[in-house]
Specification:
Length: 216
């Protein structure tokens, strides 16, 4: 990216995002620009490698825009990242990430409340096997209960701890602690056998990212 395009992007983002937002720009491997805010600073330097697990890394790997909670294991500070990859000839060549601070009154939920028929049930986050997009809502499945959350799958994704929950398909998010077995499937994809026996597909667009995150 040349200086003109970088400046134009920053001018645009400064009008869109609050003043406490940090901005990072990366090519496919390294950060090329970073502007910290007074509120949150990830101490990124131009030339630093894009870290696996970061919002920028996820957007480049998945080849799509993402909005995700990133825990402190990556940069030492938890944050929300909105990352938008920029493509050239079908390949991501750069990525712009807006970095939002975690508010002091915010914490990741220890449970989610789902509706089944005319009743509501609190479900511990650790008990969730997987989440499925169904009828524009997030269907949440455990060993003993299932029900629907009022948020859709994309909206609920950023509320879940990223070290525990992974998107493996446009319609599925899985709890990696509830995977019993990973089986190869057609076209370099995988099939996840969950602890309750349910079979969840890993789509081709998520397969490489999924393998990197689970290190196999």
């Amino acid at each position: 990216m040349n200086q003109l395009s970088t400046t134009t992007l920053l001018d645009t983002f400064s009008e869109i995002f609050p003043e406490d937002t940090s901005i990072a720009i990366a090519d496919s491997r390294t950060f090329i620009y970073y502007k910290p805010s007074p509120v949150i600073d990830l101490n990124i330097q131009p030339g630093d490698q894009v870290k696996p697990g970061s919002a920028t890394y996820k957007a480049i790997s998945l080849r799509r825009s993402i909005f995700s909670y990133i825990d402190s294991s990556i940069f030492g500070i938890s944050y929300f990242g909105l990352s938008v990859p920029i493509f050239k000839k079908g390949k991501p060549v750069s990525c712009v990430t807006a970095i939002f601070p975690i508010r002091t009154n915010y914490s990741l939920p220890s449970f989610l409340t789902v509706k089944n028929d005319d009743r509501w049930f609190p479900i511990a986050t650790s008990d969730i096997l997987y989440l499925e997009a169904e009828n524009r809502k997030a269907k949440i499945v455990t060993n003993h209960k299932e029900g629907y959350h009022k948020l859709n799958l994309s909206e609920i994704e950023y509320l879940l701890p990223s070290e525990q929950f992974l998107r493996c398909h446009r319609s599925f998010i899985v709890n990696v602690n509830q995977i019993a077995e990973i089986q190869p499937d057609f076209h370099s994809t995988f099939l996840l056998i969950m602890n309750n026996g349910d079979r969840i597909p890993v789509s081709q667009s998520y397969a490489s990212y999924f393998r990197r995150q689970l290190m196999f």
